[in-house]
Amino acid sequence: MVKREKVRMGYWRTTDKDGKKTSPFHRRHEAAPELPPLNPLAPSGNATPESETRPPSFTRLQLRNGSASPSDAPASAGSAGDSNDAGENVARTIKAQLLAHYLQTEQEKRVWTTREAGEGAFMKHSKGKYACAPDHVQHDGSGLYQAITQLNVRMLVERADFIINSLMRNMCGVEYGYTAQEELEKVLGKDPVLDVTNFDDVFASGDGKDDGRRDIMMWQAAYTGISILLLTVALGTGFREIAIEQAEDPNWLRLLFIICVPAQVWLSLFFFQAIVGNIAQIIGPIDHMVENSKYYSGKAPKRIHMDTFGKKLPHVTMQMPVFKEGLRTVIEPTVRSIKDAISTYELQGGSANIFVNDDGSKSRAPKPPGNESLKLSPVQLLTAEEATERQEFYDEHKIGWVARPRHDPKAEHSPHPFVRPGKFKKASNMNYGLRISCRVEELMDLTTRTEDWTSQQEHILYTEAMDTAIAERTNEAWADGDIRIGDYILLIDSDTRVPKDCLLEAVSELEQCPEVGILQFSSGVMNVTQNFFENGISFFTNMIYTMIRFAVAGGDVAPFVGHNAFLRWSAMQKVAYKSSEEDGGKLDKFWSEETVSEDFDMSLRLQSAGFIVRLAAYQGDGFKEGVSLTVYDELARWEKYVSYHHTHIRGFLLTMKLFRYAYGCNELIFNPFVKWFTKGPFNSLFITFIRSNIPLASKVTIMAYIGTYYALACSWLLTLLNYFLIGFLNGWLDHYYIHSFRVYFGIVMIFTVLGNISLAVLRYRINEGHLLWGFLENLKWIPLLTVFLGGISLHISQAILCHFLSIPLEWGTTSKESEDIGFFKAMTRVLRRFKWSFALCLGVTGMMVTLAYALDKEYRITMLIAVWPMGTLVVNHFLLPLVLNPQLMTFTW
């Protein structure tokens, strides 16, 4: 029997059945010895530091067995690499020892110790190994060192001030200063005191089913109808000009303009939608933006309560795919934000776990036994030390993770080939982790649980299932921690921040509305560098979410942007499919690896199966996401892929992590040219989209949105053609033809002028900004957006042509950390990345100068309506990589 006695405020000393005092534990780290460890994969409590034989980097099986085979050990870069790793380990040990002695000194200063056995300070320096002060506490017979190893905390001596203060204020009340309510708000994220009269407005009773009917708003359908009406009128005026000319000068060749009508409708529909949308934002209704409808939640649902729900609150798994992001600068802040949300949900009666799909930890494959001479390339993603640091971080924070082998189709770096499929590896990374998790569940289901089944038996069963699942893959995967999937998945990126109190509200809505397959949350922006380009892109992101909320609240189908969204796990399993592999096997695929628009594919499959996607806006900007830090990343996104998102915005539709760009646009609709004769021009995903039960108005809006990318892609070619037509044939063209200067003027008036006004007015009407200051804020970013949107035409057309011509492309992740480099190094990168763009700009400039001054007057092109659109396009393409590059504009050396 173990008893506890209070030693001092915030600490407890355990006493065994013989009355012998053991170690004082901080209350926050107290663990009941009769319960199994929280982490089913934690090292056995019988392990001692002396018997520890694990290597610096370890696999899931090594953690259980405590031994390592040569095939399991991480690859090194030779003796020099081994020496460096050893030096790093020594340095970490010394740092931990110094900090432990410092903490022990501070402990004595505050009289937190009586110098008895089992008292001291401990600092972790590697997995299962601690530096301690005083040194003899490790072998003083108290068992404290072994207990701390089981707890697996980074540092033992810490004082929970806000918990202690809360207890004192509860006891003393106002005599202590103020009540504990303010301290509890730090934990809960909001006022913990709820007036009984408002209880029914916040908490749902019974099974939590939603009794209120959610209707479909028809505003967006009306706006789409008006847009089509305006487009029809515009086309009619063009046909009128043809009719007049045909009557005066018959020439049936004029009817060839009809061939251009389908493309003209597609590329210009978004323009008319912007006109109607901007006017609606200024004078239209906005009440629906704070109400709930079928595809939109403007106010939070009633919360389910663990006492009235009738069963345990649903378990939530937070899935986070990671690649080569920095551990301390990117991943750790995200994990701490997640853990705050988990702590709040656990206080409310729920449970959650973190599941990381790590594509960086196995960037170095191990050398197999007998093949020490096997070629190993230099570190490409993470060093062995960085991979080890990640694994120890996951272990400290009870994070379940799965890491797959590096991409090695020819077995150049490992004994067996391994392919990471997909142009964008995120989908295959998540699929790999989910397959292992599902396999573990299948193996566990083979065992029948009895009525007296204990949690310890469940942990043992889980461990055995994990070992078997890894062994079935010939130990190609590394995994550790809890990788089981809960009722719902919160999909996040590695640079995400989540609100503390988001899980219960999201779970409540999903429980009350079983038809919701994806609950997408609107997001704010998390700035990293505060440079002008990042701030400009942040402005766009905030604007996009405002426009999305306006469109979806009006009845448009909600978008799924691929992160900051809750997914129903049972729905994902329902729409999963089998895909044939080269070896003839069948693998479950939850996310599409064949396209770069895996989120659009998931959204479409779920909606085809009868589920809906809903946008939740009641968290405000509590969810935060990172944006592109450099123009290189933003261009890569535009060249990359476009997902299933749509809305009315001023300027062409732009956002970073929300919208997948040009390559995916083409991939969603068309097959490559080589497949046109066998499969037709349109791919199966587009046909499925057309046949789906998505409302017609939303289909029109999506097609209009996708058309903007083709309009951007062909703008350089059409502008160049217009330059010659107006320059040489002005006055001879049919009146149906609209020259580029008129198009340019219309874009400026609708998007730049009316769009800025409507955005400021809308934010003012929904109490999200001041009218005048909001308008000035919009004007501030016009130059940046003009240069960016005016300089991406070549890059978008390149991506679309690559898909049409079946040119293989792959993309890595976007940089999530700022990089400080000098002016000359940045200029070298710009010249290498944009050399062909610069060459084309200089060539066109030379051509324009020649045609303006070097030829005879009758052949010169000097008209403003011909020169201005072409000159604007050339200048923007030339300035894009220069003036939008903070690394150049700061002039650092």
Automatic annotation (TrEMBL):
Superkingdom, natural source: Eukaryota
A Pfam cross-reference name: Glyco_trans_2_3
UniProt entry keywords in alphabetical sequence: Membrane, Transferase, Transmembrane, Transmembrane helix
GO molecular function terms listed in the Swiss-Prot or TrEMBL record: transferase activity
Bias kind Low complexity: ranges: 65-86
Keyword Transferase: yes
Biased composition range(s): Polar residues: 45-64
Bilayer-spanning residue ranges: 221-240, 252-272, 709-729, 741-762, 836-855, 862-884
Presence of keyword Chloroplast: no
Segments forming domain Glycosyltransferase 2-like: 488-725
Domain DUF7928: 95-170
Region of interest: Disordered: 1-86
Protein name: Glycosyl transferase family 2
